[in-house]
Amino acid sequence: MRITDVRTAVVAYHGEATLVRIDTDEGISGYGEANPDAGAGGVVGMIGFLKELLIGEDPRNVERCWEKLRRRKVFAGPQAGVFVIALSGIELALWDLAGKAAGQPVYRMLGGKFRDRIRVYADCGDGDDPAAARGDGDADPDAGRDRPAGWRGRSGAGAHRDPTAGGGRDQRALDQAGRAARQG
Hints:
The protein is an alpha+beta fold. The protein has a domain at about 5-110: Enolase-like, domain 1. About 40% of the residues lie in helices and about 15% in strands. The protein is globular, with a radius of gyration of 18 Å.
């Protein structure tokens, strides 16, 4: 299995997120997210800068690919900023590919399951109930929200993923990213 392409798509949420897609000669793609706190344009540019080093590599060798990028671009700022954000998105996509190629969930490849349930912080920033914004006591915490499958409770600190439910990723964002990647 060899990497044939590395693509990005910038999608809107309550800012911009840079999604990374790594394609292989076996038709498997891996996806990652590079959080764009430093600006999506810079992250997309850095991923484009790193792409040439990944083409032809075996994506299952995640640590080798990661070190190759870090060492070859050591003067591009590999210890901070846009470089680390881009490298993180690429690494997530590589792990996604490695898990798919092995037919295993990534958590098993990273040491196995530790808990059956965890609370997570979900901050998607959309669909807030106007009554909640005004501080009304009878606000509906789920009003106007399109939640990813399996999410329960309020957004923010009270939200959690139900591990028995399906989904867990925002399908709209993934669909949007897929369309953008096919066009790009």
